[in-house]
Here is the input.
Amino acid sequence: MRVVVAVDHGGPLADGLRREGIDVVAVVAASAPLVSLSEEVPEPDAHDVLQALAGADALVLEVARSTVSPDLVTLCDRAGTRILPLCDGAAAERLAAACGLEAPLDRDAEAWRIAETLAARPALPAAETRPQPRVIVVWGPAGSPGRSTVATELAVELARGGRHVGLVDADTHAPSIALALGLADEGPGFAAACRQAELGGLDARELSRIAIPLGRTGVDVLTGINRPSRWPELSERRVTGALAACREWADYIVVDVAGSLERDEEIMSDLGAPRRNAATLAALRCADLIVAVAGADPVGVARFLRAFSELRATVGVTPVAVVANRLRPGALGIDARGQVRRTLDRFGGIDDVWFLPQDPRSADAALLSARTIADVAPKSPLTLAIRRFAGEAVVPAPQTPPVGDAGRKPGRARRARVLARAAEPVA
Here is the structure.
C-alpha cells in the first residue's frame, strides 16, 4: 500500500508506518496538498505533491481548516486516493464530517493503529448518524435583512418538542434582541458569559443564572451589549470559549451576529489590539450551520451576493443555508420567487434557497407587544415558513418511505381499491 503522510513533523510517524510494512512514498507538510491546488507554490513543487497523491492509495492527513477543502476531497476521489483523517479536538472532527471523510483517528495515534486502520475497509459515517447542528449562526449583509427576527423565530421553532435552546445576541454593531423582546438589557448577558469563559468559570449552571427565560417557550436569551461602545468585551478568544460552554448547556444555540466581515489588520498598527468584528468571525468559525439571510429585493440581493463570497472564504466548508427574507411581488414584479432564485444561482452558484414572505401585520403586532411572532400570530405566513425551514434545512426529521398500503393513509388506500375495482372489465 502506497501512502502519503501530510502531517506537520510527520517523520517519526512515517518511520513507524514503514516498520508496519506500509510503503510511505512522500512526507509533506499538513497544508501542502491544499496549497498545491493553488498558485502559491512553485510549479515543480506543486507538480510533485499532486503526482504523489495521484499515485498513492491513501493520504494520511492532519485535519484543519488550512489543510482540507472540498477541492482536495474531489481530487482524491477522482484519483481513487483514500483520505485517513487525523483530528485534534472536536472542531477538527466536525470539519472532517462536513467534508464527508471517514471516521477520524486521534492526532497522536500510534503508527500501528494507523496501519491497522489503513489495512481495514474505511468506515464512512452514516448520514443518519451524523451529528445535528448544535451552534447555528444567523448572518446577513449590511442593510437590515432581518437577521435578528429570523434568529429569534428560529430559536422558538427549534424549542418545540421540549428542546432547550439558547438565543445569543453577539452583534457588536447594533444589538436588538433584548429591545425587540422587552427584556432588560442592563443585565450581565453574553458579555458576562464571555468574561467568565476567559476566567474558566463558565458552566451550565452559570449560563442558566445569566440567561433570561423567554416566557415558557424553552428559549433562554443571552442578551447583547447595551451600548455598541462595549464591543471590546467580545473578543475572539472570549466568544470562542463562551460558545464552547454553550454547547454543553443547551440542545441548540442560535447566535445573532453583525453583518460586517471586514478584517482591519492592514490598517491597524497594533496587531494585538481588539477587533470590532472579532465576535462575528469567531462565531462563524464555531458554527455547525450558518443561516445566511438576504433581503428579497434588488438591493438586498445585490448586497448579499457581494458579501457571500467573503462569507464563504471565512467559513470554508461549513454548511450554509440561504434564506430570502421579506419576499413580496411589489419590489420584483412577476414571479418574484423565480427571479431571486435565478439571480442567486447565476451570480452566486446558490441553487438551494428558502423563502420567507413579507408579513408586516404579524411583525408589527409582535413588536408592539414585545413578543415573538410565533407567540402573537402562530398561524401567520412568516411563522409557518420559518417552521418549514427549521424542519427541512436545520433539523430534518428522518423519513421512512411507505411500503405498500400499510404506509398510506386509510382514505388513499380505500380510494385506490375503489378505482381498481371500477377499472375491471364487466363480465
User: Anything to note?
Assistant: The chain has two domains: 2-127, 135-394. The chain has a mean pLDDT of 84.
